[in-house]
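User: Hi! I have a protein structure encoded as tokens and I'd like to know what sequence might fold into it. I'm fairly new to this, so please keep things simple.
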């Protein structure tokens, strides 16, 4: 941007040319455009602190970027312990070897403040500390009333204006803002490692949806084959639920050993080649057309095709005995009364043709049903659908970003497996999914 244009911005945003703040912001902007690391660091601080001059500075940065091709933003996410920081360092090394300048923003959505972040960044920078081609910044939730994602976006804009060629966004936590933050990226790498148990289960549902690339880090470890199979299984499941006719590429799965740099060049090449999220957001990226033929056999499993059926309606009642009178008068037989200790309820099942009515009487007032009664009174508590393969259904729902009350499948009375979909994901209805009938009644 020309100096005149900059002056215009400053004046338009109410900062007079005689204002000392004007000179300050002007110096910062000139410095960061010239690639001075100190000026960039101060400019980022200004924006991060949401200072009054930040608006002017951001406008100037956006203006300077207008018309230019947007630089590649790479998001790196995954569970703690996946080696994301080491991978980011390895990517930075590879990018520098290619002569590309790098901005790194490490965001911790779960951390309430950044104590000594700047010092931490210097330590973290290590080998890049003297390299003006690498800029690193840590961010946390502190002070970002407008949202961490917006604050991160602003910081990225300033770093981009300083002339970096690639921006790496690393989420270091697993807090609420993680998906929004990593969603700022054009391509998203989901990093997983073998031997972490349910590493895939530990991911937030939406993370898998935005993956452009799966990175299996620490690939020299035992369990790498199983991990890759797990992810391929997820891709198959997602292909099943994708709307017909949507063709897109399935995210590639790449292996790295970040500590040695093995596979990092290939990973970078895959991310350079990956479709950018801006074009992907409206499209389902895992269309059935992208699934290799060998997997179509799996897709055709009859279990995936069967529709759920209404298994039962759950009604919260104060007294099983009192409420059963109505159903007795209707000629509906009670098929069993039992106490489910884990849920702190007594349950009476009433046959109703193909379905059933489940009367729920709390055994304790602070149980889920007890609290429901206190808040809403007696009434319909949940509906339950029976699905043929609960694990497959849960995996599909997670891919769709559906919120579950509990992330894992519960085992109820009589060994039936169940899970609850949170009302916020089911139009205000608590939705139970069960795999088999209680007490083997149906089978
Ligand atoms: Co139920």
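Assistant: Happy to help. Inverse folding works backwards from shape to sequence: for each of the 443 positions I chose a residue that suits the local structure. Here it is:
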């Amino acid at each position: 941007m020309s100096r005149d244009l900059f002056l215009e911005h400053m004046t338009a945003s109410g900062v007079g040319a005689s204002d000392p703040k004007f000179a300050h912001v002007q110096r910062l902007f000139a410095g960061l455009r010239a690639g001075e690391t100190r000026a960039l660091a101060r400019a980022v601080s200004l924006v991060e602190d949401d200072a009054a001059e930040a608006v002017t500075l951001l406008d100037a940065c956006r203006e300077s970027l207008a018309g230019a091709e947007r630089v590649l933003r790479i998001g790196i996410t995954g569970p703690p312990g996946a080696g994301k920081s080491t991978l980011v360092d390895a990517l930075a090394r590879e990018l520098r070897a290619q002569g590309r300048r790098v901005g790194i923003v490490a965001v911790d959505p779960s951390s309430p403040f950044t104590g000594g972040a700047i010092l931490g960044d210097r330590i973290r920078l290590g080998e890049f500390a003297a390299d003006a081609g690498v800029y690193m910044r840590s961010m946390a939730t502190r002070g970002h009333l407008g949202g961490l994602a917006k604050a991160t976006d602003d910081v990225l804009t300033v770093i981009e204006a300083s002339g970096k060629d690639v921006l790496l966004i690393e989420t270091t936590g697993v807090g609420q803002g993680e998906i929004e933050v990593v969603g700022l990226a054009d391509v998203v790498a989901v990093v997983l490692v073998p031997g972490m148990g349910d590493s895939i289960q530990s991911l937030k549902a939406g993370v898998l949806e935005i993956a452009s690339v799966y990175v299996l880090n620490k690939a020299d470890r035992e369990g790498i084959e199983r991990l890759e199979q797990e992810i391929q299984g997820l891709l198959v499941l997602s292909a099943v639920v994708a709307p017909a006719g949507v063709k897109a590429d399935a995210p590639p799965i790449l292996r790295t050993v970040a500590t040695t740099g093995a596979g990092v060049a290939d990973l970078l090449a895959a991310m350079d080649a990956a479709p950018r999220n801006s074009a992907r957001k409206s499209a389902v990226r895992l269309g059935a057309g992208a699934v290799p033929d060998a997997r179509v056999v799996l897709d055709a499993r009859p279990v995936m095709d069967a529709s759920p059926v209404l298994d039962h309606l759950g009604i919260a009642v104060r007294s099983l005995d009192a409420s059963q009178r109505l159903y007795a008068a209707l000629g509906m037989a009670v098929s069993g009364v039992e106490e489910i200790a884990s849920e702190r309820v007594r349950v009476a099942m009433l046959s109703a043709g193909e379905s059933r009515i489940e009367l729920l009487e709390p055994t304790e007032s602070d149980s889920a049903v007890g609290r429901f009664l206190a808040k809403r009174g007696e009434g319909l508590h949940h509906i339950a659908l029976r699905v043929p393969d609960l694990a497959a259904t849960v995996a599909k729902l997670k891919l769709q970003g559906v919120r579950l009350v509990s992330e894992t499948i519960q085992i109820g009375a009589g060994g039936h497996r169940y899970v609850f979909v949170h009302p916020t994901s089911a139009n205000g209805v608590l939705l139970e999914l069960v795999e088999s009938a209680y007490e083997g009644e149906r089978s």
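A useful reference point when you look it over: The chain has 17 helices and 15 strands. Feel free to ask if any position seems puzzling.
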